[in-house]
Amino acid sequence: MNTERVKKLVQELLAELGEDPEREGLRDTPRRVAESLHFLTQGYHETVEETISGAMFTQQTHNMVLLRNIELYSLCEHHLLPFFGQVHIGYIARDQVVGISKLARLVDLYARRLQLQERLTEQIAHAMMEMGVEGVGVVVEAQHLCMMMRGVQKQNSVMITSAVLGAFRDNAVTRNEFLNLIGHSLGA
Fold first, then answer.
1. Secondary structure E strands in the chain
2. What is the pLDDT of residues 112-135, one digit of tens each?
3. d(Cα 141, Cα 52) in Å, to the nearest integer?
4. Distances (CA, A) of 81 to 9, 11, 64, 73, 109
5. Read out DSSP for 98-127?
C-alpha cells in the first residue's frame, strides 16, 4: 500500500465532505487512516502456510476439536464499514492437530481483508480442509454496521453463516454434535 497516496486521498475526502483537513483535530487523520487501513487489510499479504507455520502436531486422535467464540473484526467490502462477532471452528483431526492459537490467527488472516461474511466462512473452512483434516464446521455470527448505522438501521440483527465440509457434511451425527456444542453461544 502506498501510504503517502492513501494519506493524500483521505485529505481530499475530508475536504470533499466539507471539512478543513488542516483543522487541529483532523491534521493527523490522514496518517491515522492510512495506518488503520494497512492493519485492517494485512490479510492480503499473509498466507495460510505463514500463519500456521509449523503448528501442526502429531496426535493419534480422530475426535472433534472445537474452538468457540473466536473474536472477529472485519470490513464489509460494500460500504467499508466494520462487521464483528464470533467464529466457531470444529474439526476432526487426521493424525495431526492444529495449535489452537493458529485457529484464531487463521480467522484474522481472512478477516483482515475487505470481506463478505459468506466468503469469510467458506475461506476458513477450505483452509482447514487443506490442512488435511477429515472434516470441518465453521459458524460465523456477526453484526454489520452497514445494517446498524445506515440503510435499514436494524440494531439487533445478527447474521449467521456456516460451512460444513468433509465428515461434517457427510455425517449428520458429526454435524449435529458440532452444532450442539456451539448451540449455547447461539442461544439455543
1. 56-58, 64-76, 82-92, 96-98, 114-115, 135-144, 159-166
2. 999 999 999 999 999 999 999 999
3. 24
4. 18, 19, 35, 10, 18
5. E-HHHHHHHHHHHHSSEE-HHHHHHHHHHH
